[in-house]
Amino acid sequence: MNARGALGRYGEGLAARLLTDAGMTVIERNWRCRAGEVDIVARDGDALVLCEVKTRRSGRFEHPMAAVTPVKADRLRRLAGIWLERHGGPPPGGVRIDLVGVIVPRRGAPVAEHARGVA
After folding, report:
1. Would you say 44 and 98 are in contact if contact means Cβ atoms under 8 Å apart?
2. How many angstroms separate the CA atoms of 39 and 28, rounded?
3. Which of 1, 10, 21, 88 is most buried, by the most CB atoms less than 10 A from its CB?
4. pLDDT at position 62, please?
């Protein structure tokens, strides 16, 4: 695994813990199909949450929360539809697409931000 992949996996691990600490249950990580990948699939009460995780080192590129473009949001909605089709349809609480942005500084603790219903 290259450094970028390792950074991404690290951020996904932090995001999974953040969601779990917020009371969610992680169902799957890195679910893949032909159309793409969902970083984290979780339950929040009776709602299904598909979560995109973006991790960046501090001071480099854009803020991770800016990484979900309209094209990316469309792809996430398409992936949500495929996941639901393969797993029995939507739950009573509906479906939500969230984003967790993680910034890893050179020194100190990483900072994670959770945005609900981004797409």
Report:
1. no
2. 8
3. 10
4. 67
